[in-house]
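## tool: complex_structure
## caller: assistant
## args:
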Amino acid sequence: NAGVTQTPKFQVLKTGQSMTLQCAQDMNHEYMSWYRQDPGMGLRLIHYSVGAGITDQGEVPNGYNVSRSTTEDFPLRLLSAAPSQTSVYFCASSPTMGAGELFFGEGSRLTVL
Amino acid sequence: TQLLEQSPQFLSIQEGENLTVYCNSSSVFSSLQWYRQEPGEGPVLLVTVVTGGEVKKLKRLTFQFGDARKDSSLHITAAQPGDTGLYLCAGSSGSARQLTFGSGTQLTVLP
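## result:
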């Protein structure tokens, strides 16, 4: 029962470095999204996708890029890491948008020094 | 941007006590979800409410959607240590294509 798989689980970067957080789901869900979770701020949407080849910005997209070449994969790229991007990142998928249940990965904890 | 405010932010109670957490907004939502998140894991859906005034029960947990669909509450009866976690509400409106999450209530139930 893989569900949504995120890698890596932990990562430390230096300011200015780039990296990609990987996300894969095996439930054939069309909708996928990336959130960041910071203390006292809940989950904030970074980018989302409603299907292969389609992506859109969420609430806090600056400094992040995404692509959706397949239904299964939705990687999140940090172009030039900044300390403000220190956070826990969650990938989620859903069979529908809006009121549909979100299935989350276990999270990726990123620290930018 | 639609905002969801949750209260209290932190709650620590003894096993067996009852508690209520709140999720409030000035915006109308077409549906509202409640998730529970345990340390080191992603949130897991508990319930979805879609009709104003709707009440749903999940064992000792009772969820209510406000009549005007702007607020919701979660009541736990006879809390147990296994109820410990971060409770998040999330709202969806007809015009938005994604969920808006509240900041969460961190519940600790002490044995």
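## assistant note: Chain B has no helices and eleven strands. The first strand of chain B starts at residue 5 and ends at 7. Handing back to user.
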